């Protein structure tokens, strides 16, 4: 006797159980169709970005499911914030090894749903697949902003101030600490400082609150995902300019400062390491005060660390006037 075709596959049931409950946007169509709809407000552009996180590359295989979900979405939200865009929604592609269990999926989807609500970036759809390779989470995020106002990386101009949000290097140092806990003793870190570095690597905090201020006042901007030195260099190349950075003014947490004092190589790590997910931007002198005031009102710390000049490349100047040599500009997958 012929079998009756199943109305739902295992994949359909997985999606219905874990992801349909968090896909509340009407454009998601209940995750029962092959596509979703997204309509920007009149007079607005859609900004699109995509980033993937891969086990063993962007996170450790034993990292908790909720932390992986937070990182996967937030690295994309960081890109949107640097462009001056407000989140509008995202697509999720989840490639899972067969051994992935229901408990892991429950924790992952719960954390993803919490961030979708927190940042106003609803799940619109995506795909789930099985893979013989490592766990991979790929997200395509959409943002909106008034037409023609996206802040690009090629807008830096000679004379601009270079500013960065938050603190630099914590995530890169947190990764080093994860690989060798004995460094905490060498750096003379308190328990709170150890926790700070570990958390900054594990779960990014996108500067979404700064998006409007960046859009209104910055000439160029990008998020610091591959390291301050390398990402600023990319912006300078795109803009056809150079930058001179005062190392003493680069904002460091107390933990990063202790590490840098223990050995200068850790200062280099802080300046060139990735995963900060802060915003580096350039601002005209006559807009500097307004940008700083706007950031202060939003509760986001921004620091003026240098200037855009003629030429090429990025120079990191030490207090004695010497140029700090960096072994590498930024993280690269290839």
| Regions with little confidence, pLDDT below 50 for 5+ residues | 1-5
The CATH architecture assignment of the largest domain turns out to be Alpha-Beta Complex
Q: What is the CATH topology classification name of the largest domain? A: Phosphoribosyl-aminoimidazole Synthetase, Chain A, domain 2
Radius of gyration over all CA atoms, rounded: 21 Å
For the largest beta sheet, what order do the strands appear in spatially?
6-8-5-9-7-10
Q: What this model shows, in words?
A:
The protein is α+β, with helices and mostly antiparallel strands. It contains eleven helices and ten strands. It folds into two domains: 11-22 and 40-146, 60s Ribosomal Protein L30, Chain: A (2-Layer Sandwich); 161-317, PurM-like C-terminal domain (Phosphoribosyl-aminoimidazole Synthetase, Chain A, domain 2), CATH 3.90.650. The protein has a six-stranded mixed sheet with strand order 6-8-5-9-7-10. Strands 1-4-2-3 form a four-stranded mixed sheet, covered by helices on one side. The longest helix has 18 residues, at 65-82.
Summarize the structure.
This protein is an alpha+beta fold. It is built from 11 helices and 10 strands. The protein is globular and about 70 Å long.
Write a concise keyword list for the protein shown above:
2 domains; Phosphoribosyl-aminoimidazole Synthetase, Chain A, domain 2; six-stranded mixed β-sheet; alpha+beta; 11 helices; four-stranded mixed β-sheet; disordered N terminus; globular; 60s Ribosomal Protein L30, Chain: A; 334 residues
């Amino acid at each position: 006797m012929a079998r009756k075709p199943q109305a739902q596959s295992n994949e359909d049931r997985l999606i219905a159980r874990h992801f349909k409950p968090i896909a509340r946007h009407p454009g998601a169509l209940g995750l029962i169709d092959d596509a979703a709809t997204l309509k920007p407000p009149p007079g607005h552009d859609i900004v699109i970005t995509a980033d993937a996180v891969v086990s063993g590359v962007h996170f450790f295989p034993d990292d908790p499911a909720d932390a992986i979900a937070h990182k996967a979405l937030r690295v994309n939200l960081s890109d949107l914030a640097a462009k001056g865009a407000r989140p509008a929604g995202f697509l999720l592609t989840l490639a899972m090894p067969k051994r992935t269990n229901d408990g892991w999926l429950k924790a992952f989807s719960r954390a993803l749903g919490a961030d979708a609500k927190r940042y106003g970036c609803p799940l619109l759809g995506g795909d789930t697949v099985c893979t013989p390779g490592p766990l991979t989470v790929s997200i395509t995020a959409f943002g909106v902003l008034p037409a023609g106002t996206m802040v690009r990386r090629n807008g830096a101009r000679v004379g601009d101030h270079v500013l960065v949000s938050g603190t630099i290097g914590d995530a890169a140092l947190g990764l080093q600490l994860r690989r060798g806990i004995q460094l905490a003793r060498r750096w003379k870190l308190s328990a709170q400082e150890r926790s700070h570095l570990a958390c900054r690597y594990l779960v990014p905090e996108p500067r979404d609150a700064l998006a409007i201020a960046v859009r209104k006042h910055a000439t160029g901007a990008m998020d610091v995902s591959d390291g301050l030195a390398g990402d600023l260099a990319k912006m300078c190349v795109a803009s056809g300019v150079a930058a001179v950075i005062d190392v003493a003014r680069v904002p460091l947490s107390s933990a990063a400062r202790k590490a840098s004092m223990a050995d200068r190589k850790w200062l280099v790590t802080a300046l060139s390491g990735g995963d900060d997910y802060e915003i580096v931007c350039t601002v005209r002198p006559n807009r500097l005060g307004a940008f700083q005031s706007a950031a202060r009102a939003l509760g986001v710390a921004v620091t003026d660390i240098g200037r855009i000049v003629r030429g090429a490349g990025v120079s990191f100047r030490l207090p004695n006037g010497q140029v700090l040599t960096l072994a590498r500009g930024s993280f690269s997958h290839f």
